[in-house]
Structures are given as structure tokens and as C-alpha cells.
Specification:
Helix content: 55-70%
Largest sheet: 2 strands, antiparallel
Shape: globular
Number of strands: 2
Distance between the termini: 52 Å
Oligomer: single chain
Number of helices: 23
Strand order of the largest sheet: 1-2
Order of helices and strands: HHHHHHHHHHHHHHEEHHHHHHHHH
Number of domains: 3
Mean pLDDT: 79
Length: 465
Amino acid sequence: MVEFANREDVERWLEGRPQDVAVALAVRSALRALPGIMDNDNATIRRSAIPVCRAILTASVAAVGPTADVKRAALSAHSTVQAVDMGTVPSVAHLSADAADEALYAALLSDAASAAANASAYSATATASSSSAAFYATYDAAASDAEALAEAGDAKSVFQAALWSFETGDWDWSPFVERFLDLFDADPTVWGFWARWYRAHLEPGARLDWDLWERIVREMSEDDWTGKPEAVAARIAEIEAIHRTEVAPPLIRDEDAGLFRIKQDPPVAEDTLRFARERIEFAMDTALAATSGNALTETSYEIITVRLALTRHPADASLLAAAFYDACLSLQTNIGDRYPEDTSLINLQNALYATTEEICEQSEAARKRCARLAGLARPSPPTRQDRADAPEIAEAVASAADEEAQAVIRGDAQIIAEGEIVPKWVRARFTNYVTTIVLWLDRAKKGDARVAWLVKRMRAMIVVT
């Protein structure tokens, strides 16, 4: 059993352990200390809340996935937060830098040890309760995290535990937590993301959206972070919108090539994909050939949706799964309404669902994207404005993408421009890919009228999607 009674105990436990373990322990202590920011005046809170939260968010992402770009983002968070008057929470501010750079490992160990002590100091001062009760309660929490880290062997698992998972006696940190969240809840347009982010850490087993958090860390520029809270919130909301509607492998920036490319998902066994394609093609052909008058034709939404994926992306597990599930959901709505309750249609729906499940069993990315697809609005024909703008938008961003991404963007634009029926996954992919590039262009070319037009049009298309 791990027991921490002082800083030296923590340092001894950390000695020789992997860096991500030390970072995770430090971040968890920082999360406990974070509500101590409420001991400041309102002006200091408003000025320091985003830099401090950004530092902790970035450090946590660095702990669970310390890629080179995340480490760079953590260093940036560190340099920015050092320049801000943090009031009573100085130690929380510098954790992210220590998560970022191997050369700062020794400093990290010191910070991991001191974060728990600082958290107890905040609570003792702020609540006027027994300093010893707060002190030992905080070290008990760190010891609980240490046990979880030692048992699991990875940093990510420790974040699944509630921040406070023990009896605190006469020491109660909840008033500060409530005041802290009340600050966010009072203006959800500005602080809504941070409220959801912090609440996710409070309950054991809560859903921690590491994919979204990593995306925010990677895609937010220094200019994005240093704007007014309203501007920071708007930028995060755009990233959340892209993430929420992402049903295809995302675009990522290849800094070495200076271009956007499509991120490759882990492969799914070809046998699985081949069986899925053959099963769906057979079920479609059977339904189309049925003599029962089921009203299904080659121009039906479900057939167009599946044919596009089979023709253009036969080896892409995520897109096959998304297209099959899209068509399955459509049949679920339309059978008994637009279509009669025909056996061949029910068999097609069952085949679409079963093959989607088989692919998702082998692909976590496909499973997540299908879940997002279910949340998209029902498909509607593109507007006249969308049809006119799509090819022009595609050409405007083409030079920022590599050949593969260019081909996808142009192909999707053509479908939107020419088709009365546009599958949800095509519309979502087009808006996400173009928006990813446009938002990057907006940062790189401030004041460019052409880019401003692109931003306006793509924001409108995101809402429609």
C-alpha cells in the first residue's frame, strides 16, 4: 500500500518511474488544486482561468499521449501562463512545461511532489479548516493515484478515478468546487467547455474525451489561446463542431510537407472488409430485384449512400461502416413509411447493421464515427447556395492539401454540386475537411477577404450538417 506523508515520500516513489506517470500524478494534484483559483478577485480569476486550465489540459494530454506536437503545445502553454499573474495558484501554472520536455524531468519530479502540498495549502487557507486535515487528505489522494498508476502501468487509467475518493472528515473542498463551476455555468457560451472538462474528472468512470482534448491542444494556436475568453470559446466551439460530426478519417497538418493529409486509421483485416462488401452488395441486389414492389431503386438514398462508399472507398473501414450505418438508419426510418415492410428491405437493413458491427468490433475509430453519425441531422437536399459554392470552396483550399486529400475534397464537392441526394457522411466529411483547412488559413492570413468568405460559408455549412 502506498502512503504519502510528505513531499519526500512522493519524490521517493517517483524516482525511476516513467515520465508520463509523474506527469499524471502532478496533473491530478493540479486538478484538485484548481478550484483554489476562486480565492482571487473576479478580475484575476477572469484573467488567469483560461491560462491555468489550458496548462492543466495540455499537461494531461501530454501525459496520456506525449507526441512531439503535444509537447510543443505544452511548452507554449507554459511560456504563456508564466506571464500571467496567477494570484494564489502559481504552482498549477507551470506543470505543463514539465510535461513537455525531457530535459525538465527533474523539475517535473519536484512539481509532482509539490502540487499535492500546494493543493492542501490552498484548501487550508481558503476554508479556514484544519491545515493538517487538508494536508493529509491531499496526500492520501495522491497516494491513491500512485497505487492506481502502479497497478495499471499507464497514465490514462488513473484519470478514470474520481478526484476525491475518500472521506475527508471535517475538511470539505466542495464549496470551492461549486463556486468554481458556478463561475463557468453563469456564462456557458464562454465557459461551457471548461465546465464539461472539469466535471468529467469529478466522477469515477466518467467519459473523458481524450480525442477531443488532444485535438484542441494540437489545433489551437498561440493567437487562439491569448484572445479574449469569448474568442477562445468560439475557437474551441468550432473544433468541437468538427469533432462532433467527424465520420471519416480526419485531416492533419504535415508540417514537414507544409500540407494537410488524411490521417490513416489502423487497418482492419481485408477478409472482414471483403466479406462485408460482398454481403451488402448481395443484399442490395436482392432488394432491388425483388418483385414485391418495395419502392427501392438505384436513386434511393440508401443505395446511393452505400454505392458511393463501395465504389470510392472499398478498403476504408471507417467510411464503409459509416455508409452502411447511415443507410441502416435511413431504412429504419423509412420502412413502413416511404417503403412497405418488405422482407428484402428488412434483410438489407439487418445486413447493414451486422456488417457495421463486425467492422466496429475491429476498429475503435469506426465505432466512434458511427456513433457520431447517429447524432447528425436527417439528410436534406443541398441548397442552391451550397451547390454553387462547393466546387469554388474546394478549389480555394486545394493547394493546402496533398493529392489524396485534394481528390477527396473535389470529389465530395462535385457530389454536393450535382446531386439532389448527398449522403450524411459525404456532407460531414466535406465540411470537416474544408473547415479544418479554412480555420488554419484564417490564422495564417488574418484580414484576407477571400479567407473571411470561406470562414463564413463553412460555418454555415457546419450548422446545416
